[in-house]
Amino acid sequence: MEVDNIHLIVCKKLFILLFIMPVLVFAQSANKEMELIETGQFKKNKFYELADVTRVISENEIKLRGANNLKDILILETSSIFNYDKTKGWSVLWHGSSKNNILILIDGLPFRSYYFDENDLQQISLDNVNKIEFVENPLCVEYGSNAITCIINIIYKTAQEKVYKPSLKLQGYYPASFYSNISLGRKTTENFFKYSGTIDAFSGIGGNDSGRVLQWLPYTRAINQINFSHKILQYLDFSIGYNNLIEQKTQLGYPLLNSTKVFDREIKYNINNFNVGLKGKLTKNYNIQGDFQYMHYRRFNTLYYKDISNSQQLAVNDTSLNDSIKYSGIFSRWVFSQNDKNSKLNYLVGFDIYTTSDRFKPIVNKVYQKNSTSAIFFVAKYTPNWRTIIYGGIRLPYSSKYKSKPMLDLKINLKINENFRLKAIIAQSSKSPDFDQIFATYLTNGFSIKRNLNLSDENVSSFNYSILIKTKKIIAEPGFFFYHFKNGIELIPDPVNIGRLVYRNVSEKKILGTRINFIAQSKFADINLRMAYTGNNHLAHKYDQMFFFREFYTNVIFKIPKYSSNLCITSKNVSVFSFMKNETNNDFAHFIDRYFLADAICETSFNKKAIILKAGVRNIFNLKNIEAYLLPADFTGKEDKTFYNVSLLSGRNVFFEININL
After folding, report:
1. Total of domains in the chain
2. Is residue 485 a contact partner of residue 478, using CB atoms and an 8 Å limit?
3. DSSP string, 550-592
4. In sequence order, which residues have a C-beta less than 8 Å from that of residue 299 and are 6 or more positions away?
5. φ, ψ (nearest 5 deg) of residue 589
6. What pLDDT score was predicted for residue 333?
7. Residue 552 pairs with which residues in a beta bridge?
């Protein structure tokens, strides 16, 4: 009875949150630049004129939150469930979907994980970032099938930005960790040059499951970035860039019973990325954007047998336990667009192509390890009157390995009056298995992964709506989202071979939910409160393998202009409600996981911001709470309830930072 009551309460809460509770989204009206959105556009547009649900994290907020990389930002963002793999690193699941349904862009170009999911979010440095844009709805027509639930576009500084001064950033953590960055740049009338070099090192702490960190591995990471841009005829911006990442991780083992022997795993990365771009106006009303990207990825995974009594270390020469991955990827995207404010109909048309190939084992079982995908796409913007903006798009993809289906979307922005706008989005997407799921077998956590050439494509239907409320003091956007995934591809244990993982097509999944955002800004404080409530999987199956997750997010910035100081406090509370049933459809288990995370950072500037000092505490709260775990009488003879808290090692804790801007 009690479990049924819990089911009823959760269902009622979900109904109220989805259909009754007002949802407040994105209210950053104090900063005019925050209103301009670049993602998916080839001319900056005000966010309230788009049908997309958009949000921006500015450069100032990135700095105030003490973020060095994308993981530092996303781990505390609402609607994101974070995941950490001891071998592969950090990833993010948006609304509980699989991670390859989120597309990360850098200046409009897909990040390396677009080709392969081995890349840690910590590898995306934020030292040269102007802002981060989020689009929290499908953008598949413009960017492809990975852009199903969310777009995260990291926008770098270019020749259009202010003069860049040399800067030095040093950051130390307790326990032992060190982060440093040196930036050199110069801007003239027509040119912009920027170099950024970063070293990130962590000595490592063995920990347990926490939701913030699952395992702190010793690592050393070096990132070098070079960017150059040049104005052509004052209307076009030509850019060229190079990025190199070298990283070494060591996964520490534990001594064998009654022995001084231990197994350690060492993982080395070397990733090189080269890109060229052209963006700007051809004429007054016509724009062009072209990009080319080449990436070369190498990873070496080695198991070592170590005697900790005398520090002797030998590599274990077993190909089933060690592997090397070497592959390359080429991506190109070209878009031509019309943007005439005097025309009711504007459009953009373009194509993109990417090819990924294995360089280490180009042919396996007489199968060439290469996959190519290309597409042409068209998006039209129709404005029949001052009240209505209609966006419609189609994408026609082609895959060398699988037959791909068209992708469609229809978006409407209806202006009811000066303060109210209605937005609605309907999208149909399809995604073929990618290179990672077909080829390039590798190891993770000691498990081998078997690829599957019999995978079928994934089909996704989605629906989003919202009502934008815009006044002088507040901007709010009530809304709702729904995703229906069919034949999704997930990594699961192989039912035939124990100890092996395999990519399989799984049953359909439904995701529905709502979000709450509220932002208040004043001279002395900025307050941002957000919440997401999502139901995942089948309600129709009476909660079989069903889970709900609820997140509360707070970000409060206190400003003290007189002393050039700021205090930023960020926290997040995640609750996951899970349900499982047995073969006779009886309740087998019910449990609730809760995670509490919080950071606090203080910043003070001296001598017109020539010197900036920061100090903070990460993981003020880093606690996992298992509230309940129930087994019905069929298994135990009585209902078994267990309540316990798990206090975990905090990983990075206290830190100090100094910024010197010459």
Report:
1. 1
2. no
3. EEEEEEEEEEEGGGTEEEEEEEEEEEEEEEEE-TTS-EEEEEE
4. 118, 267, 268, 269, 270, 324, 325, 326, 442
5. -160, 150
6. 92
7. 531, 573
Candidates 538, 529, 361; CA nearest to 441 is 361
In tens, the pLDDT along 643-653 reads: 444 444 455 67
Amino acid at 473: K
> CB within 8 A of 84, min separation 6: which ones?
90, 91, 213, 214, 215
> Which residues partner with 312 through β-bridges?
307
Contact in structure between 221 and 246 (CB atoms under 8 Å): yes
Cβ partners under 8 Å of residue 589, min gap 6 = 578, 579, 580, 629, 630, 631
For every residue of 315-377, DSSP letters joined together read E---TTT-EEEEEEEEEEEEEEEE--TT-SEEEEEEEEEEEEEESSSSEETTEE-EEEEEEEE
- Reading the block at residue 157, the tokens are 């500084």
**Residue by residue, what is the 3-state secondary structure of 427-447?**
EEEEECCCHHHHCCCCEECCE
Res 14: pLDDT: 40
CATH of the domain at 217: 2.40.170.20
Task: Report yes or no on 16 lying in a domain.
Answer: no
Strand 447-450 versus strand 500-505 pairing type: parallel
Question: What would the two tokens of residue 599 be?
Answer: 């950071």
Using the CB atoms, write b or e for 511-543: b if 16+ within 10 Å: bbbbbbbbbebeeeebebbbbbbbbbbeeeeeb
Task: Quote the CA–CA distance of 238 and 190 in Å, as a whole number.
Answer: 10
Mean pLDDT lowest among 356-370, 371-385, 460-474, 552-566: 356-370
Q: Determine the length of the chain.
A: 662
Residue range(s) defining the domain that contains residue 32: 22-661
Tens-digit pLDDT profile for residues 618-627 = 766 655 555 5
- Residue 468, domain member (yes or no): yes
Q: Are strands 458-470 and 407-415 parallel, antiparallel or unpaired?
A: unpaired
Task: Name all contacts of 168-172 with Cβ < 8 Å and 24+ positions apart.
Answer: 168/659, 168/660, 169/127, 169/657, 169/658, 169/659, 169/660, 170/657, 170/658, 171/66, 171/68, 171/614, 171/655, 171/656, 171/657, 171/658, 172/655, 172/656, 172/657
Backbone angles phi, psi at 351, to 5 degrees: -145, 155
Residue 4: its H or E element: helix 2-19
**Closest to 175 measured CA to CA, from 138, 149, 206:** 206
d(CA 24, CA 21): 10
The answer to whether 348 and 335 are in contact (CB under 8 A) is yes
- Bond into 362 cis (ω within 30): no
Integer Cα distance of 655 and 662 in angstroms: 23
Residue 472 in tokens: 């002088």
Q: Does any domain span residue 213?
A: yes
Instruction: Give the number of other CB atoms < 10 A from CB of residue 462.
Output: 21
3 state DSSP class of 28: coil
3-state secondary structure of 516: strand
Burial of 217 (0-12, 13-18, 19+ CB in 10 A): buried
Looking at the domain assignment, is residue 9 inside a domain?
A: no
| Whole-angstrom distance, CA of residue 420 vs CA of residue 402 | 44
Q: Report how far residue 399's alpha carbon sits from residue 509's, in angstroms, rounded to the nearest whole number.
A: 24
Number of Cβ within a 10 Å radius of residue 599: 25
265 near 245, Cβ under 8 Å? Answer: no
Task: Using CB atoms within 10 Å of the CB of residue 662, give its burial: 0 to 12 exposed, 13 to 18 middle, 19+ buried.
Answer: exposed
Q: What is the pLDDT of residues 477-525, one digit of tens each?
A: 888 899 888 887 777 777 777 667 777 777 778 888 888 788 777 888 8
Q: Which of 578, 654, 591 is closest to 622 using CA atoms?
A: 654
